[in-house]
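sry for the spam today, last one i promise. struct tokens for design, 715 residues
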């Protein structure tokens, strides 16, 4: 499915709804070959006509321009701040989401939308009742109502939304548009706001019971888990390696630090909360026993024991939360530290799965997960001790250029099962040592990868990993696809993607802004293949991107037909227009700044502009006074004040300007005005100044004479 054109009318009942940033009616063209215009004649019934005009040959966007025919078009929405770029993006998303569920009645605007399906058929859908829209081209017309049937093609399209800002609109969108499941909803909301809410929900704890600090910790740890899962994905790491070798800026970490929370501190909190003071002495003795073991073993088992104990702590917390135990008298802390059974025995002492009813199925499932985790650690203790090194309280893992197959399989299994036992009490955090720009791209790549359903690996076991088992999993057939699910239990595999990026350049270094479009297109074509994997019966044949940006470096990659400019009129209303005369593709940076982003006040910093303006104003003021006031109208104090102001401009402004036309001109003008001031001084003052200079010259000549004759000169 392709989005060719949208007409939005925000003036329902003759009023402009609040929250739409001055927009009344708005036309947005996304077609690569044609442009569309909606015309009205309210005197004829009323009469609506959608006209199509072929683009000029130089204005067309050829198939394959963005690197592959599967990327239909990338459109940039730019303009002045406050013109509603984000508002329009939200409106487009709301419109398309409403089409999925044939629920357009609640939209606060009317629309007409032209779509093209996989068979190249055109579909014009709109919400005006009892209105026929004329077209000079063939298309299927659907006036949306409660009885209409949604287009199958649109239901096979996935929407993705990214925003790195936090807004109330993003939160309302997240709660208002999700239906079934995070990954199978028609809209996959990856905004910062939605990601934070989702991380909290994934922890199975309501926000009412968590302090803000705890909720933020949940968000960051949940994100770090997803990033780890992405970076150890075999297919994804190969994509990153390929792109990095091609010169694209991609997040490609060569090392990993695991921060493991202190199990003793967490276990003490559990003991205090559940056991109270009655167990204090026993717990203290047990801690001493554990510390002695760590010292004698020279921390050889430290990573394994800390992970096992943390898992055990999580299980005790879950038991106490579900069964409401009042104390820990029945809990037997581990007596051995180098085998899995000792930790499982502690779990059994709090909850024996064979002695309880099926009413505690949730706890039984979690017991099996924790048991599997501890068995996995000790079954693969040899690999963990080989690849994971303790360094200053953190576990340091060298990844290198190409991952060892055993290390990769070890990390894939560990990341998944560690997330499963963490619940809402995370005890492992992943640190990659990436820059902020790399972290932004890693977040983007990770979310795009998580949209793919299925697993490219065999079922992960707790058995000891061997060269043979690692090689077998590496060769496993991929089974990836993108799915939309609906309330009527209908499930469709998606063949198209609409990707929305709000403030796409935010927090990126200028060089990474310049590379962003090239990097994104290369990554999408590698990720969303057609077919998704060998032998698949579906794939992604169409990718369409709509983004907002303030970056002229990013805009320089767009043909004129792919850029929509928002401009606020004198009456405060916003219009969307094209500016084919600008031709941003490969354009000069200065022109893009001035014309592409409507910088009527110049292209230099506001502070620098203010200072330069102040210099020019003082220069002009003195020039004006020279022509309009007699010579004797100036007193000495005024002349001294003006002279000092000009000298201050030299020190505080002109000296910081780069060599060039502006600096040279200001220095020249200041010199001219200083000469004017000097001519205006009265003869007596002028003579006094001359005499002072003569005295200074005589004094300096006398000092020079004494130095030349070897005499000392006083300071």
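last one done:
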């Amino acid at each position: 499915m392709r989005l060719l054109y949208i007409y939005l009318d925000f003036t329902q009942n003759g009023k402009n709804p609040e929250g739409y940033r001055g927009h009344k009616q708005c036309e947005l063209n996304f077609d690569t070959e044609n442009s569309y215009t909606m015309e009205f004649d309210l005197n004829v019934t009323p009469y609506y006509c959608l006209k199509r005009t072929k683009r000029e040959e130089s204005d067309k966007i050829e198939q394959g321009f963005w690197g592959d025919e599967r990327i239909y078009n990338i459109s940039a929405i730019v303009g002045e701040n406050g013109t509603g770029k984000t508002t329009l993006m939200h409106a487009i998303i709301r419109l398309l989401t409403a089409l999925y569920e044939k629920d357009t009645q609640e939209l606060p605007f009317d629309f007409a939308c032209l779509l093209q399906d996989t068979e190249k058929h055109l579909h014009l859908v709109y919400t005006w009742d009892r209105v026929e829209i004329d077209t000079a081209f063939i298309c299927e017309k659907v006036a949306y109502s409660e009885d209409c049937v949604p287009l199958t093609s649109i239901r096979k399209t996935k929407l993705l939304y990214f925003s790195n800002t936090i807004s109330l609109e993003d939160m309302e969108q997240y709660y208002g548009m999700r239906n079934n499941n995070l990954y199978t909803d028609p809209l996959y909301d990856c905004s910062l706001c939605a990601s934070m809410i989702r991380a909290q929900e994934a922890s199975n704890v309501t926000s009412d019971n968590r302090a803000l600090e705890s909720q933020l910790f949940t968000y960051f740890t949940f994100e770090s888990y997803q990033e780890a899962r992405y970076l150890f994905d075999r297919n994804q790491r190969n994509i990153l390696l390929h792109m990095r070798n091609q010169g694209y800026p991609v997040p490609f970490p060569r090392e990993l630090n695991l921060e493991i929370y202190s199990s003793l501190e967490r276990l003490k909190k559990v003991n205090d909360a559940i056991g109270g003071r009655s167990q204090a002495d026993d717990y203290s003795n047990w801690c001493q026993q554990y510390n002695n073991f760590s010292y004698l073993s020279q921390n050889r088992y430290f990573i394994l024991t800390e992970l096992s104990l943390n898992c055990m702590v999580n299980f005790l917390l879950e038991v106490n939360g579900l069964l409401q135990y009042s104390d820990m008298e029945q809990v037997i802390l581990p007596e051995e530290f180098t085998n899995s059974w000792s930790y499982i025995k502690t779990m059994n002492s709090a909850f024996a799965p064979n002695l309880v009813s099926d009413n505690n199925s949730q706890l039984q499932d979690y017991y099996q997960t924790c048991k599997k985790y501890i068995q996995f650690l000790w079954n693969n203790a040899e690999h963990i001790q080989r690849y994971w090194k303790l360094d200053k309280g953190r576990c340091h893992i060298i990844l290198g250029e190409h991952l060892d197959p055993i290390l990769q399989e070890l990390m894939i299994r560990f990341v998944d099962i560690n997330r499963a036992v963490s619940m809402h009490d995370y005890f492992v955090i992943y640190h990659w040592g990436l820059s902020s720009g790399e972290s932004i791209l890693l977040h983007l790549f990770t979310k795009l990868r998580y949209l793919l359903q299925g697993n490219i690996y065999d079922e992960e076991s707790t058995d000891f990993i061997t060269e043979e088992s690692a090689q077998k999993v590496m060769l496993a057939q991929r089974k990836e696809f993108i799915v939309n699910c609906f309330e009527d239990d209908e499930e469709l595999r998606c063949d198209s993607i609409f990707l929305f990026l709000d403030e796409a350049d935010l927090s990126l270094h200028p060089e990474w802004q310049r590379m962003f479009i090239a990097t994104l297109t290369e990554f999408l074509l590698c990720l969303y293949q057609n077919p998704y994997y060998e032998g698949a019966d579906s794939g992604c044949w169409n990718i369409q991107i709509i983004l907002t940006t303030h970056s002229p470096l990013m805009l320089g990659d767009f043909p004129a037909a792919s850029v929509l400019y928002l401009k606020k009129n004198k009456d405060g209303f916003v219009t969307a227009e094209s500016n084919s005369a600008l031709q941003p593709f490969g354009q000069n940076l200065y022109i893009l700044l001035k014309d592409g982003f409507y910088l009527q006040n110049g292209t230099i910093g506001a502070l620098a502009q203010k200072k330069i303006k102040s210099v020019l104003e003082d220069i002009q003021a003195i020039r004006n006074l020279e022509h309009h006031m007699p010579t004797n109208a100036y007193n000495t104090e005024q002349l001294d004040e003006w002279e000092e102001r000009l000298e201050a401009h030299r020190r505080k402004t002109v000296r910081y300007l780069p060599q060039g036309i502006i600096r040279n001109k200001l220095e020249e003008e200041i010199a001219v005005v200083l000469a004017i001031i000097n001519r205006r001084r009265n003869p007596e003052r002028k003579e006094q100044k001359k005499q002072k200079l003569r005295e200074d010259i005589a004094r300096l000549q006398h000092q020079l004479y004494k130095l030349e004759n070897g005499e000392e000169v006083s300071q």
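The longest strand covers residues 71-79. ok im logging off now
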